[in-house]
Specification:
Arc Repressor Mutant, subunit A, Dna Ligase, domain 1, 2 domains
């Protein structure tokens, strides 16, 4: 990434924070940058990247920043079963996820069928369904290749 691209990304992140009514702070900008480099990151993974840019940052501060970004709708938090919560910048659509059962890799899957919420329950029990979250489980290409090589 060029210096100009990095500057533009930081300006976009700062504008997103302002638009959400949040102050623009170095930890928030660093967390957004970390998620731009590594989508579907855990809080620990975000912390590892943030602390490189801001050595005095604590893991607790990273959790506070991620909670604020999630609450403001800048970041989406997903919680695949049996896995730590993960964070991503892709918001505003009703996409789903595919998770590797061996290595835990996560990737996006666009809406399964039709328009959001993609799935219609047979009985919504009076709820107005606004989103549907689906997690597909299987083997990522790297794990499939590894498994095939060992057979």
């Amino acid at each position: 990434m060029t210096t100009t691209e990095a500057s533009e990304r930081e300006q976009d992140a700062a504008q997103s924070l302002r638009d959400a009514g949040l102050r623009v702070t170095a930890p928030r900008l660093a967390a957004i940058a970390a998620l731009g480099e590594h989508s579907h990151a855990t809080a620990d993974e975000v912390f590892e990247r943030v602390v490189r840019a801001l050595p005095g940052t604590s893991l607790q501060a990273t959790y506070v920043v991620l909670a604020a970004l999630t609450g403001a709708g800048i970041v989406r938090r997903i919680e695949p079963a049996g896995s730590s919560a993960r964070y991503e910048l892709r918001i505003g659509d009703n996409h789903h996820h595919v998770v590797c059962t061996l290595c835990g890799a996560v990737d996006d899957v666009d809406c399964v069928v039709g328009e959001a919420p993609c799935l219609t329950p047979s009985d919504a029990a009076g709820f107005l369904v606004q989103t549907a979250e689906v997690t597909f489980w299987g083997l990522c290409p790297a794990c499939r290749a590894l498994e095939a090589a060992t057979q």
